[in-house]
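Appendix B, record 7
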Amino acid sequence: MAAIALALGASLTWGLADFFGPLKGRSLGALRVLFYVQLSGLATIAVAVAVRGKGPADWAVLLAIPAAISGTLGLYAYYRGVAVGAMSIVAPIAGISAVIPVVVGIVSGDRPSAWQFAGMASALVGVFLASREPGRGRSRLAAGVGLALLAALGFGGYFPPMHAAGNADFWWASLLFRTTSTMVILAVIAIRRPSVSLEPRHLPTLALVGVGDMLGNLLFAAASTTGLVSITSVLASLYPIVTVVLARIVLEERVARSQEGGIALTLAGVALISAG
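C-alpha cells (predicted):
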C-alpha cells in the first residue's frame, strides 16, 4: 500500500511540474527553464542528503545515472513538444512510457493480466487518434507528436534502472539522478550556447517546478523499495491526467472530437495498465 501511495504521489507532483515547467518554456525557452529547474532540484536534494548524513547503501544506486540520461533527454523532448503542440495531446502520448516497464517485467518473468493487455491496446489506439488532426481532404500529424513519442521513449527508459537504484538507496539514487540530469542540461547548453539570463520574477516559479520534479523522482525511488517495477512505474505514469486537466482548466485547450477520444483512450489505457 505504501508503494502505491508513493507512486501516485510521484504522478501528482510530476503532473504539476510537467504543466507549469513547459508552460514557462513556451515563453522563456526549454533549455533556459530546464537550467533553473535542474539547479533548484539539485540544490534541494543535495541539502536533504547532506542533512541525512549517510553514504550510499549499495553500488546499485549508480543505475540512476543511465536513468537520468534517458529521463532528461525525454524531458527535453517533452518541453519541446509542448512548445510546438497542444499540452493535452503531448502529455498523454508521453504517458505511454508506462508500456516499457511492463515489457521489461514480461522479459524478467512477469505475466501481464488481460486488463494490462487491454490497456496497452487502448493506449496505442488512443495515440493514433490523438496524433491525427482532421482537416480538409485528409488528416495530418498533430504538432508535437513526434517529440511526444521521443519523450515516451526517454521516460520509459528511466523507470527500470531508476527502480533498481531506488531499491538500493532512494536518497542517493535521487541525488545521483539530479546531478547527472543537471550535467546533461549543462552539456547541451555548452554546445548550443543559448542565453540563460532571466528576470528575477520568474525564479520562484521555476524553483518550485524544480523541487516538484525532484520530489516526483524521490517518491518514485522510495516506492521502488517495496513495489514491483511493473506496478510503481505505471502508477507514476498517471501524471498526464493531472497535466491534461490543468491544460483544459487553465489554458482552455480545445482539440478535435476524434483527438479528444484519443486522449481519453490513451489515459484509460495507462489506467488499465496500472489496474492490472
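Remarks on this record: The CA atoms of residues 61 and 165 lie 4 Å apart. The longest strand covers residues 132-133.
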